[in-house]
Write a structure and sequence with these properties.
heterodimer, A: 238 residues, alpha/beta, Rossmann fold, 6-stranded mixed beta sheet, 3-stranded antiparallel beta sheet, 32% helix, B: 298 residues, ABC transporter involved in vitamin B12 uptake, BtuC, globular
Amino acid sequence: MIPAAEVRGLSVSYQGRPVLRDATMTVPAGVVMGVVGPNGSGKSTLLKAMLGLVTPSAGEARFFGSALPRVRQRVGYMPQHTAVDWDFPTTVGDVVLMGTYGRLGWLRRPGRTERDTAARAMESTGIGDLAGRQIGQLSGGQRQRVFLARTLAQQPDLFVMDEPFQGVDAVSQQAIVDVLHRLRREGRTVILVHHDLGTVTTYCDHVTLLGAGRVISSGGVDKHFTDSHIAAAYGLAR
Amino acid sequence: MTPAAFLSDHTFVMVTAGTTVIGGVAGALGSFAYLRRQSLVSDVISHAALPGTLLAFLLLTALGRDGRTMLGLLIGATVTGTVAVIAANAITRHSRVAIDTAMALVLSTLFGLGMLLMQHIQRRPLPGKGDIQDYLFGNASTITRADLTVSLAVGTLTVGVVAVFWKEFAVATFDRDLAGLLGFHHRILDPLIFGAIAVATVIGLKAVGLVLMVAFVVTPPAAARQWTRTLPGMVIVSALIGAGASALGAYLSIVLGPVPTGPVIVLVLFLVFIVSLLLSPRSIVLAAYRRRRSPALP
């Protein structure tokens, strides 16, 4: 079966300083892959380089067996909520609607179908009642749910999420977890950067451990999320 | 002066109508520069436009045409203005140089080049070079009916581009990465957005001048943002503020003066901005006043 994502030898340097070295991982279709590691280990960079948001110095990523431009509509990205200006004059509903623009393509306007898709995405993340709200008035957790709803509105087969639980309250956390479980049941594929070692096995069935810009281990959690691998990723190994 | 007397004077009407069009278009497009946190692109564009206009002047004169036709001026200015902004962004993306530094570099270099070209033109016996220094500080009283027609046509075209690419402009302005991932390529959208901002800036060169044009692009959106909650709302209010302040400023410059029109409009715009800061729903001054009037419950 063709994997949802395949990363081969991906390397990234910022201003000559390597931040990701020769990263390789395979994300089989239908799994939840946790990308785990200490701060600065290259987790976000790995995601951004896969998607071409930063230019890799070497290596490549393929999605469903193809380069990204050929399968754009099948890949959704949920950035960290710090990625945009939350003082932008727009509403929750309009931001979520942007998720549908990819399928629309150039120049076509969103219509009833797109609005319905956005409304369903907001309902499933529990922000249906916030559609008309200014995005500047949202809490951290609500912002994450807006981005999650926008990604759902893209209707992708692969969800790439950068720290979806960063700075969220308990209600938002539960809403996001519910969506993750639903996606898993539906057989979608998820790659998520995750910080909390304690819940990796709860949410993820695969894991990629990163340490100092290198992939320490990647595969099923039972074999690869081991104490020795975790110690190596966090620089605790002797 | 009675309104009837005002309206019967061709120059007064041209000045008012011309600056109103300039203010409206610059206000609408300025919103996108403001929201990209690149308000100063208009300053880069207007300064970088100088060599463009002068090169267009030289080219047209060499071809035996009128070197100061509005359309030629606009094309030359838009080309160098857009290239300058794209160059400043490219410098930032491919080096450690920050965007403000890159903008200042590009702005001053191209302006220097423009000054050399101006010197060159003034030393040569070229026809129609007389008011060429007007591009620096502008002269609204030189707006002709032909200029107004060209400004209106080009302004309408620019606003039309925004309307046609509304969805793409909105997503690229709010979340550049998302736009790229959805397939709205930066290499198409960036030149479109910056080109539209460039046109909105350079249509004011002749009337307002390159030094003050930045105020027409920066101030209306900054004021409009205080009153509006959505992108369409902001663009429309910003355009209305730009057009309204320009009409009022042009009128005042004639009845109080004559004094130079551009500077009066800039002052009117600044007043609108201050009033917006103080009285709009987002005003921190008003919020502080309300808090003092109704102290929080213990």
